[in-house]
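Q: Can someone sanity-check these two? First one:
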Amino acid sequence: MTIQSSAQIGQVIRNAVAFDVKNWQGGMMNTDSLIQSVQDLFTVLEQRKIDYVLVGGIATLYYVEGRNTQDLDLLMAVSSLEKLPELKVSNRELYFIRASYNELQIDILLTQNPLFKKVHSDYAKPQRFLDRDIPLATVEGLLLLKLYALPSLYRQGNFARVGIYENG
């Protein structure tokens, strides 16, 4: 499936959440609201002229079929993040922030990191989706980000994610 609209981005995330057995325990979230949350987030980013780049699994789906992801990954400066008070930050590290927008999980890679800044400035271009232009990392930018992440995943012993990164 080639992603063509922000609604389809929401559908990919909704399906990944809905069909992940780990999410079946406890109260089931309304996964249909994820589609609207994705569209609302992209509208807010556009209206506030927030400088970001879409990376991660959704960006990969623009180029390659068969990827599954439960979140959005964005490259963004701290100053841009400050324009989004709706985000609820659950974890903050030096170069990474995990937040939520309604039920939607968002991982933010901060451009304070020199590599993230390089991808943001040199390896991104707007791609037309049916309903809007979304700044998207190029294939080269996505590869740089994967190569950056691999050593850390090996050190953590997170071999499930290593497999995804090496094969996706």
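And here is the second, same format, sequence then tokens:
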Amino acid sequence: MITVRNLKKLVGETKSTLLSNVNMHIEQGEMVAIIGGGGSGKTTLLKCMSGRIGWDRGEITYHGESLSSFGLWKKYKYRKECAYLAEQPLLNPNKTAAKNVLSGRFRSSGLWKVASGLISKNEHFTAYDYLDKVGLLDRANVKAEKLSGGEKQRVAIGRALAWGAKVIYADEPVTGLDPHSAARVMEDFRKLCAEDGLTVICCLNNIELAEAHCSRIMGLAGGEIVVDVTKRRLTEREKQTILGR
């Protein structure tokens, strides 16, 4: 589904190498954690994979097609199907959880539906469906400014699904959350992967959360993937290889 081959990324005025030889292949329905030390390039890798920034060498393909070959329409379609969730969810604080989810539906519904008013009832029920998927149906009519950090992140997930996302690239989605909220966000991801075939690739600092919820863990160090394990915990040696301690 998603393949990265020999990816290289240079950064800064000095064009120093951040990512030198990244290779991976991810199938539909996987929940993948990318872990690494500070400055290892996790976020940069995620932005490259999601098409938010370019790279200097190598190839990223989606269903066999190279992202580099995409024209405007395919780029738009890819960004719609492959949502990028920033560490801090970008929600409208003055709108309810349901209306924030609806802002995602407007992208795929067409302006004519919005203008005609046809969106009012049916789409609101659709928003409730997506909020129900992330366990927030009871918070549908609460303004985003009154939601907790974990609830905001889950609304952002619901909005991505409303866009029609089949892949979610999540950059540190649980940073700053209390343990219960962090576990709930990760469990929502896991459930969506298992039941709906969603694919999730997330950058994480918390190895324990990755081990508890992700089907696969990749370790990034020295500009490349140095550890790739499926359905098991990391050994101490693997942790040392990734984190360099």
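A (reply): Looked at the second one. The longest strand covers residues 16-26. Strands lie at 2-11, 16-26, 31-35, 57-62, 65-66, 82-85, 167-171, 199-204, 216-221, 224-230.
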